[in-house]
Specification:
180 residues; mainly alpha; three-stranded antiparallel sheet; 3 strands; 53% helix; globular
Amino acid sequence: MPKNYLKAPKNPKISVDDPVFCKAFDELILKEGGYVNNKYDTGGETKYGISKKSYPDKNIKSLTKDDAKLIYYFDYWLPNKCHLLPPLVGSKYFDMCVNMGKKQATILLQRAIMAVGNQIDVDGRLGPQTLGFLENSKGIGEIPTLAALRSEMAGFYRLLACRDPKKGIFLNGWLTRAYA
């Protein structure tokens, strides 16, 4: 069972079968892949991107896609408010929260909002100010924000690889992920 399952909102409109979440989940699984235990990956033992480090009580090797879907929905999608964002930006932000954590993902999201001409505090919190700018970008404005978000993500990955050359082996995959 996911960590946040019992804290889930009791709103019938919020469902693990939400089509935006399902599409984002399917895209994430393609990026994360199956079972991996790469000694150079700080995530350690993972399956579908779910790590033993984050879920020490789970048998990672036997994790099913349905298990992963519940974990991602209740522990990432809802707590990170991805369902409140424009669909394309929300899906990319979800991917980022999984890959780099909520705070770093939010900092990059806020920088992307600034890159498309808005003044916003870059504080790493997805609060009313950030949500307000994103609400106003629904429709045609979502595409420039998504493009800026992809660039911010790629820049972050390049910086990681520069700071730690051992992580350079992951750079091409990270950049593919950023621009996907």
